[in-house]
Automatic annotation (TrEMBL), chain A:
The keyword 4Fe-4S applies. Transmembrane segments: none annotated. It holds the Pfam family Fumerase. It comes from Methanosarcina spelaei. This is Fumarate hydratase. Keywords: 4Fe-4S, Iron, Iron-sulfur, Lyase, Metal-binding. GO terms for molecular function: 4 iron, 4 sulfur cluster binding; lyase activity; metal ion binding. Belongs to the class-I fumarase family. InterPro entries: Class-I_Fumarase/Tartrate_DH (IPR051208), Fe-S_hydro-lyase_TtdA-typ_cat (IPR004646).
TrEMBL record, chain B:
Keywords: Lyase. Belongs to the class-I fumarase family. Residues 4-178 form the Fe-S hydro-lyase tartrate dehydratase beta-type catalytic domain. It comes from Methanosarcina spelaei. This is Fumarate hydratase. InterPro entries: Fe-S_hydro-lyase_TtdB-typ_cat, Fe-S_hydroAse_TtdB_cat_sf. GO terms for molecular function: hydro-lyase activity. Pfam families: Fumerase_C.
């Protein structure tokens, strides 16, 4: 029972986690943006990258969300099989989202899909979206990844024929060209290949959380170079920085299928993690 | 070229702007996104009068994050939203109202014709909401809060709001379309 945690402090921690994710980007993302600004030769694009970096400074200084689209709340939770919270974790996470919405504040973004009625507190059916994974051990790791609609709307999924692996790169490029400046490039592009219809999309979303400073290999590098040769650039105004990184994740799939999902992430690749329990 | 303009914008103010120029705006701007556009068009069809003036207006595609304080509404974060969602509604919207500038992000497909000799599209860096909030000095009014905070029409007073890049000018030049075309060609070459 050593992993027991206090419900109130758990809610506080999750609300603080959301605050951190909304206000500060992870170091690897900031560094990638700085590198892009330094390398960009197109003056209009450079001015946009400078505005982004200035915006990050202001958000950090005044402790306000970096973007008014504070996203819908998505969590990735890895729960150790020996971790025993002693309370309903999902209910507590929901409480933390409502608390964070009121106190940071966050923009209320959750609406009924058909009536479009806004719930007012970022809670709704299936929102927050919490992805649970049971792992060995006695810790709970929660990653908050608030996702804005501008980039999410430009994402795509296609069920290819199994023989069409050679078309994957082109599908990603097509998705990026159709999106143009709308998803707020420079992008992080998550590509999920394999699994099933929904598993491919999940892989693509998880790929966005991978560190941007790790080297890109094989297909990742190939797609990355082709994307940046498109010339869409920061905010679709031209230049060489359409993407900061491409991350590919794969899973085995049915012999008769080849699902491919492309999850588009704007420059504000927001995510933050916290760990509970364990031996500390 | 860099311009510093004041609202309400006159036709001659925007006619001198060319795609690629940088603009800083001071004065009053109105936020309007999906639902507000739909309502403005709907009220137009019914010949109902709007609760705000659109004469020489600057429309900002923005769903701000606001906070209610003892002294009224305060802007927390207010960057531009994706203008592409308003593309279809914009030509009839421009026909019905003397809007002089639209601020947004990502550009709009097939609106350059509707903007010709009437209005300009100004691109503001997407996601730069904290920076924008610093340049918004006052929330003058809010209309249609029943649509929800992001979808309501907020009347804002701004100072030196920018840098805004002229994305589509009154002569029909559209930077976004040019870049899309180039990207499409590059895609075909690679595919």
């Amino acid at each position: 029972m050593s992993t027991k945690i206090n419900r109130e402090s758990f809610i506080r921690s999750i609300a603080d986690l959301l605050r951190k994710a909304e206000i500060e980007l992870p170091d690897d993302v900031v560094n990638a943006l700085r590198k892009a600004e330094a390398a960009e030769e197109n003056q209009v694009a450079k001015s946009q990258l400078q505005a982004i970096l200035k915006n990050l400074e202001i958000a950090k200084k005044y402790r306000v969300p970096m973007c008014q689209d504070t996203g819908i709340m998505i969590f990735f939770a890895e729960i150790g099989s020996e971790f025993q919270p002693g309370f309903d974790l999902e209910a507590a996470i929901r409480e933390a989202v409502a608390l964070a919405t009121a106190e940071i504040p966050l923009r209320p973004n959750a609406v009924d899909p058909l009536t479009r009625k806004n719930s007012g507190n970022n809670l709704g059916v299936g929102i927050p979206d919490i992805h649970w994974k049971i792992v060995p051990g006695n810790q709970l790791k929660i990653t908050a990844a608030p996702k804005g609609a501008g980039s999410e709307n430009m994402s795509a999924l296609r069920m290819f024929n199994p023989t069409e692996t050679g078309s994957i790169k082109n599908f990603v490029l097509e998705t990026v060209v159709n999106a143009g400046g709308m998803p707020c490039p420079p992008l992080t592009i998550g590509v999920g290949i394999g699994g099933s219809f929904d598993a491919a999309a999940r892989l693509a979303k998880e790929a966005l959380l991978e560190p941007l400073d790790a080297p890109m290999e094989g297909l990742e590098r190939e797609i990355f170079e082709a994307v940046n040769a498109l010339g869409i650039g920061c905010m679709g105004l031209g230049g060489s920085t359409t993407a900061l990184a491409v991350r590919v994740k794969t899973a085995h799939c049915h012999t008769a299928s080849l699902p491919v999902a492309v999850n588009i992430q704007c420059w504000a690749n927001r995510h933050a993690s916290v760990v509970f329990g364990g031996d500390e | 070229m860099e311009y510093h303009l004041k609202t309400p914008l006159k036709k001659e103010d925007i006619e001198k702007l060319s795609a690629g120029d940088i603009v800083y705006l001071s004065g009053e701007i109105l936020t309007a996104r999906d639902e507000a556009h739909a309502r403005i068009l709907e009220m137009g069809e019914k010949k109902e009068e709007l609760p705000f003036s659109m004469e020489g207006a600057v429309i900002y595609h923005c769903g701000p994050l606001m906070k209610q304080t003892e002294n009224g509404w305060k802007v927390v974060s207010a960057g531009p939203t994706t203008s592409g969602r308003m593309s279809k509604m914009t030509p009839p919207f421009l026909k019905a109202h003397q809007v002089r500038a639209i601020i947004g992000k990502g550009g709009m497909k097939d609106v350059a014709d509707a903007l010709k000799n009437r209005s300009v599209y100004l691109a503001y860096t997407g996601g730069c909401a904290a920076l924008a909030a610093e340049l918004i000095k006052e929330v003058k009014a809010v209309h249609w809060l029943d649509l929800g905070m992001p979808e309501a029409v907020w009347v804002l007073r701004v100072e030196e709001f920018g840098p805004l890049i002229v994305g589509i000018d009154t002569k029909g030049k559209d930077i976004f379309a040019e870049i899309r075309e180039k990207a499409q060609k590059q895609l075909e070459k690679q595919g």
